[in-house]
Write a structure and sequence with these properties.
The complex is a heterodimer.
Chain A: E1 2-9, E2 15-23, E3 30-31, E4 38-39, E5 51-55, E6 71-72, E7 74-76, E8 79-81, E9 84-88, E10 92-96, E11 103-107, E12 114-119, E13 124-128, E14 133-139, E15 146-152, E16 157-159, E17 165-171, E18 174-182, E19 186-194, E20 201-202
Parallel strand pairs in A: 6-10, 9-15
Antiparallel strand pairs in A: 1-2, 2-17, 3-4, 5-16, 5-18, 7-8, 10-13, 11-12, 11-14, 14-15, 18-19, 19-20
Chain B: H1 8-74, H2 77-88, H3 91-105, E1 111-115, E2 121-126, E3 129-131, H4 133-136, E4 153-157, E5 160-171, E6 174-185, H5 187-197, E7 200-205, E8 208-212, H6 219-228, E9 235-239, E10 244-251, E11 259-266, H7 268-319, H8 333-361, H9 364-371, E12 378-391, H10 394-398, H11 403-423, E13 427-432, E14 435-440, H12 449-473, E15 481-496, E16 501-506, H13 508-519, E17 525-528, H14 529-535, E18 541-547, E19 556-561, H15 574-595, E20 602-605, E21 611-626, E22 641-654, E23 658-667, E24 678-689, E25 695-704, H16 743-748, E26 769-778, E27 782-789, H17 797-800, E28 811-821, E29 824-834, E30 854-866, E31 869-880, E32 890-901, E33 906-917, E34 919-921, E35 927-929, E36 934-944, E37 949-960, E38 970-978
Parallel strand pairs in B: 15-17
Antiparallel strand pairs in B: 1-2, 1-6, 2-3, 4-5, 5-6, 7-8, 7-11, 9-10, 10-11, 12-14, 12-15, 13-14, 15-16, 17-19, 18-19, 20-21, 21-22, 21-38, 22-23, 23-24, 24-25, 25-26, 26-27, 27-28, 28-29, 29-30, 30-31, 31-32, 32-33, 33-36, 34-35, 36-37, 37-38
Helix pairs in contact in B: 1-7, 2-3, 7-8, 8-9, 11-12
Classes of the chains: A mainly beta, B alpha+beta.
Chain lengths: ~240, ~1000
């Protein structure tokens, strides 16, 4: 279960989106393989699966982040590390193989399809991500290995902490699609109307234009169903 | 129906045949039973084997599919691609990956369907090509792998059968969906399967064979296999008389389609040995039957030939031939029989010889007595009458004659004398030279022995006078015999010695008879007093002078028998004679008529045989019960009445050439009524014809008109019913005695009051007896008659006796009868002549004469007689010339009759007839029939009581549209007796 609680705070030109993601406890994903049982690391050691929150799309007037080419997702102990990486558009990520075994890193995601083929320990291949979106990455040889790269178009993104809290600050006012994403639950898009300052009002179903600021105390969003049941409150002034 | 005669040979053959049939039949049945069992066994074995083999193949597929599925599920590739495809709603990425994977695995023909977790298909691929999943599975279907074991199911896509298995695709703890992977069940598969099973294999889906090892040309086998595939369970069918087994097992289909795997097993090989045995059995059976036939023939011959010989021998014995022996051929029972037969014949033969010997020595009666076994010496005293007869002047008679002549003469006499004696029941005791001694009263006695003796004596004298007549003709001297007869007591018995006896009589009375004989003159019969006393009632005798007889004290009174005794008296009193003859005739005829032992009639044939007189009679009595009154054409009453007629037929025939026939009839007028009986000559004519009945013939006199087929049959045995058909029994409104004034009036005549109808002219009489002459020609097939008669067939009876052609022209008749084939005869008749009566000539208008009233008839008739059924039909087209009526009235009449004989002398008949009257035009032009159409239906039942006694019953329905008496039914019964 995954619940988001968003508070509205409206700093002037420092609108921020904050919230809490409730992460349910799950057993670690166990995957059977012909050659020995392995356990997917994701979800085992961490109390939660890495979850990212970001604003989808470009924001006008906000320069993009700098491209980075220094990030990598390492294949170590037959796991991807990190399993979730957020990179600005245009960055490239390398995938070094630090294991004694071969790995075959690939992705079918439309955002960026690639297949790095097999390469041995010490070798690395690099992939550039020129389109925004989610890229799910797997290893053909080790079915429990998975990672994801989120390619963002704006600097407004953050990881959800271990308690499930997140804050995105200095968000220019506007109405944004806020994506909360993790590997298990997929994406959850919530519309956030960030005021010039103060709290953001988040509402899933934007009823009308003259939507007043509503006090939102909690917002429950449930994944894995395409229904949502939520109660929304919004503070006035949003 | 008699059973056909079954000879011994045949019986033997039948017995053998039955035994063989039983044996062969039993063997055949057991064989059949075994064959069937074998078929069943083979087929179930084959079915099990098929199932097993197929199961093996399925397992193979399963393994392969599992491998592929594993390939799909174990690596992240396909799940990853699936996930991406789902995420982005882009199946292409998934199909790409899948295609790649399958190619890597070398599985190019695989069918793959990817579905959502709920089973709804997402995308599909066949042979590496993407296909719309809705082609593969019908919309609404789900790929459901509820039991997530990998098991084989079958689906059809694009006419191909696929063996598929469904695996769920889990990815990181989440079920992405299901993938259905399948191998095509192609020809190769079925061929492999077929090889394993040694059968033809076909996979049938929804009544169509999708893949089969059977070549398409073998439509019969294919259709048989398809037919067997209907059903939800295993079906085993045995076809082609047991040489083909079709086993069908249904296949599981997720979509619920009907799929089945059908194997066709050729059982010929399995059954070949059985068939061979069967054939051998048939041949053996046949051979055995032939053998049986031969054996029966040979055996029976050898068995029955001695019997047949014996039968022939008995025939010979029956014919009197006792002088032979039957050959004894064997030592068995038949040989015994033959030997017994021989000894029997010998015994018979011996007996016969003794018997004939005895007969020659003694009279038959004595011989009989002796043979009875009681031959003893001695005798008994009884009263007997002795007769002695000897030839007067024998010595002088035979002087100068050769001994043979003497013997011949003697035998002539003795013959007649012995015959006379034996005729009267006497016994010739002995011949003593020229004398004969006869005994009446021993060994068998009669009450009237004396009378018999005297009668014998008279008969002897008669016979002798006849003999003398003949001897005179031969210029030989007469022989005269004197006879003496005496009645008295004498001893009768066997006298002589044991070894040789003689049955004779002894006594004074015997001597006296002898003396009387000596005293009798030539041709005289002398009897004693005792005899005279016994015979005087019956025989006339005159007393003579008593004679002195040696040994008798007193002279013995003698009486001489007069030859004019009633038994030889021929009193030819004519009146008494004729009276007696008539009485005898009547007695004879009535007795024999009733007894019906012989043919009716009395026939007298002259001594030369050339002239024959035939007297027959017929008496018929009828009872009528009309429905109502009037009853047309029978008496005008509704009461029942009795009518009848008596006829005497006298015909004289000379050598078959010339024949004279008369009929004397007494009846109650022309149609049945209860009036007084009148008598007349109904027929009198002579006929000149070839005795054999061929060629020309000539007939003249008064006889039944030759026109039409019915008149000849009317009121005779040939007519099964009593009343005539309506076409011969109907009176129209055409009157022989009236002249209609014009068309209108004539047409109106049909509505005249009732009593006018009997005055009308009959269309034709049932049997018109007219004066005329005819010439005929007769062959085997044709009988042609050309006649001139003194009136038309509808002329009134009072005109029948008119001397021909006095006042008007004759009428002409042509009649041809043709025998098409033995049962079928057809005839044509034509007649034309005046129908009216000269009596009305004076009343006729203008210059009309009787000759203006002409009737012309054309007739056709046919008769068919086969077995007990007779069918007859007649049709007339009839035209009347009627002065004052501008168009000749015409009518068409016909009848059809069926007579059916039943058993025991019964017969039934049905006759239907109709008259149709044509239209005439009234003055205003309206057509109107000139009389009302008439229909008659007759149904009758008859019974031949005896050959001369016939009973007929009939019921008649008459119907007409006319105003009077439209329904006129009549019940009749007739009894006729031919004598």
């Amino acid at each position: 279960m995954f619940a988001v609680i968003i508070f509205c705070t409206v700093p002037l030109y420092s609108g921020s989106i904050t919230g809490t993601v409730e992460l349910s406890r799950r057993p670690a994903t166990k995957v059977q393989a012909d050659y020995g049982d392995r356990t997917s690391m994701t979800g085992k050691e961490m109390a939660s699966i890495p979850t990212v929150v970001y604003i989808q799309g470009t924001i006008p007037g906000v320069p993009a982040e700098e491209k980075r080419h220094d990030q990598s997702i390492v294949q170590k102990n037959t796991q991807f590390a990190p399993s979730l990486l957020v990179v600005p558009r245009g960055s490239s990520v390398s995938f070094p193989n630090a294991d004694d075994e071969y790995h075959n890193v690939f992705s079918y995601s439309k955002t960026r399809r690639f297949d790095l083929g097999r390469y041995p320990k010490g070798e690395s291949k690099s992939v550039s991500f020129d389109k925004p979106g989610v890229v799910k990455i797997y290893c053909e040889i080790h079915p429990w290995m998975r990672a994801a790269v989120i390619v963002v178009d704006n600097p407004y993104h953050t990881m959800v902490d271990e308690q499930g809290k997140f804050t995105i600050e200095n968000v220019p006012p506007g109405i944004y699609d806020v994506v909360i994403w993790n590997m298990d639950e997929g994406a959850r898009i919530v519309k956030a109307d960030v005021p010039a300052d103060g709290e953001v009002m988040l509402s899933e179903n934007w009823e009308g234009e003259d939507e007043p600021t509503v006090e939102i105390s909690t917002l429950h969003v449930r994944m894995a169903e395409h229904h949502s049941d939520k109660k929304q409150t919004c503070k006035s002034g949003c | 129906m008699k059973l056909p005669f079954l000879s011994f040979r045949l019986k033997l053959f039948f017995v053998l045949a039955i035994i063989i049939t039983f044996l062969v039949g039993f063997l055949y049945l057991s064989l059949r039973f075994e064959t069937h069992r074998q078929i069943d066994r083979s087929v179930s074995a084959a079915a099990t084997q098929a199932q097993k083999a197929f199961h093996d193949v399925e397992t193979l597929w399963q393994d392969q599919l599992r491998k592929v599925s594993l390939r799909f599920t174990e690596s992240s590739r396909i799940p990853g691609a699936f996930e991406a495809a789902l995420d982005e709603e882009d199946p292409e990425v998934l199909l790409d990956a899948a295609r790649y994977e399958l190619r890597l695995a070398g599985l190019n023909d695989v069918l793959a369907v990817f579905a959502f977790p709920d089973g709804k298909p997402f995308t599909a691929m066949v042979r590496g090509e993407p296909v719309s999943w809705s082609d593969v599975l019908t919309p609404g279907e789900t790929v459901n792998g509820e039991d997530l074991e990998v098991s084989i199911r079958y689906i059809v896509y694009a006419g191909e059968l696929y063996a598929v298995s469904i695996v769920p695709l889990n990815f990181f703890g989440r079920m992405l969906g299901e993938v259905m992977l399948g191998f095509p069940v192609d020809r190769e598969v079925s061929l492999q399967l077929g090889e394993v099973l040694n059968a033809q294999v076909a996979f049938v889906v929804n009544g169509t064979s999708v893949v089969a090892t059977v070549p398409n040309s073998d439509t019969f086998l294919l259709s048989a296999m398809v037919a067997a595939s209907k059903g939800d369970q295993r079906v085993i069918q045995i076809l082609e008389g047991g040489s083909l087994a079709v086993i069908s097992d249904p296949l599981p289909t997720p979509s619920g389609e009907r799929a089945a795997r059908v194997c066709a097993l050729d059982l010929k090989e399995t059954l070949a040995p059985f068939r061979k045995i069967q054939q051998a059995l048939w041949i053996m059976g046949l051979a055995a039957m032939i053998m049986a036939l031969i054996v029966a023939t040979l055996l029976s011959r050898s068995l029955t030939s001695p019997i047949r010989n014996l039968v022939q021998a008995t025939d010979r014995v029956a014919l009197g031939d006792l002088d032979f022996e039957v050959t004894v051929t064997s030592r068995d029972e038949l040989g015994l029989l033959a030997r017994a037969f021989n000894s029997m014949v010998r015994g018979l033969s011996l007996k016969e010889r003794y018997r004939s010997l005895l007969d020659k020595v003694v009279s038959a009666e004595v011989a009989e007595e002796m043979l009875k076994g009681e031959v003893f010496l001695g005798g008994e005293t009884r009263e007997i009458t002795t007769l002695f007869a000897d030839i007067r002047g024998f010595t002088s008679l035979t002087e100068g004659m050769e001994p043979q002549e003497v013997i011949a003469m003697l035998n002539e006499v003795m013959d007649r004398e012995s015959a006379s004696v034996e005729q009267e029941g006497g016994v010739v005791d002995k011949y003593v030279g020229d004398a004969l001694m006869a005994v009446f009263g021993a060994p068998v006695a009669h009450e009237d022995d004396p009378l018999r003796a005297v009668k014998a004596a008279l008969s002897m004298q008669n016979a002798l006078s006849e003999l003398n007549e003949s001897r005179l003709q031969r210029d030989l001297p007469s022989i005269h015999v004197g006879i003496g007869v005496n009645t008295g007591e004498a001893v009768a018995g066997n006298m002589g010695s044991h070894r040789r006896l003689n049955y004779t009589v002894l006594g004074e009375s015997v001597n006296l008879a002898s003396r009387l004989c000596s005293a009798a003159g030539p041709g005289e019969i002398l009897v004693s007093e005792s005899t005279y006393r016994r015979i005087r009632k019956d025989i006339d005798a005159v007393e003579r002078e008593a004679i002195k007889v040696k040994g008798f004290t007193r002279p013995v009174p003698v009486y001489s028998v007069l030859k004019s005794s009633p038994s030889s008296r021929a009193s030819f009193n004519p009146t008494i004679l004729s009276g007696m003859i008539l009485a005898l005739v009547f007695l004879f005829s009535s007795v024999q008529g009733i007894m019906a032992q012989n043919n009716p009639g009395i026939v007298y044939t002259s001594s030369s045989g050339n002239f024959q007189l035939d007297l027959k009679g017929r008496l018929s009595l009828e009872g009528y019960l009309p429905d109502d009154s009037p009853a047309w054409l029978v008496e005008d009453t509704e009461d029942a009445f009795v009518s009848g007629r008596i006829s005497l037929y006298l015909s004289a025939d000379w050598k078959g050439w010339l024949r004279f026939q008369t009929e004397l009839r007494g009846d109650r007028s022309e149609y049945p009524s209860s009036e007084h009986i009148s008598g007349r000559f109904q027929q009198a004519y002579f006929r000149l014809s070839h005795p054999a009945g061929r060629g020309f013939y000539f007939q003249a006199g008064k006889f039944v008109s030759p026109f039409g087929a019915y008149p000849r049959r009317h009121d005779s045995v040939a007519d099964p019913l009593i009343r005539p058909p309506v076409m011969y029994d109907y009176r129209t409104m055409i009157c022989p005695g009236f002249a209609p004034p014009d068309n209108n009036k004539f047409i109106d005549w049909k509505d005249r009051p009732e009593h006018f109808r009997p005055m009308g002219a009959p269309i034709i009489w049932a049997a018109p007896y007219q004066i005329g002459a005819l010439v005929g020609f007769q062959t085997k097939r044709i009988d042609l008659k050309l006649g001139i008669m003194n009136g038309a067939p509808s002329a009134e009876p009072k005109e029948w006796n008119r001397i021909p052609w006095e006042s008007y022209s004759p009428s002409y008749v042509v009649d041809i009868l043709y025998t098409v084939s033995s049962p079928l005869k057809v005839g044509f008749s034509y007649s034309r002549g005046p129908y009216s009566t000269p009596a009305i000539e004076s009343t006729l208008p203008y210059d009309a004469t009787i000759d203006d009233y002409i009737q012309e008839i054309y007739g056709l008739n046919a008769a068919y007689a086969a077995g007990w059924t007779e069918v007859r039909a007649e049709i007339f087209w009839d035209r009347w010339e009627v002065p004052n009526v501008t168009t000749d009235p015409k009518d068409l009449s016909w009848m059809a009759e069926v007579k059916q004989k039943f058993m025991a002398g019964f017969f039934g008949a049905v006759r239907f007839g109709k008259i149709h009257f044509n239209d005439l035009k009234r003055s205003n032009g309206t057509p109107d029939p000139w009389d009302y159409d008439f229909e008659r239906l007759q149904v009758g039942l008859g019974y031949n009581l005896t050959r001369t006694l016939l009973l007929k019953t009939e019921y008649m329905w008459n119907r007409t549209d006319g105003p009077y008496d439209p329904n006129d039914n009549l019940a009749s019964v007739q009894l006729s007796w031919l004598f």
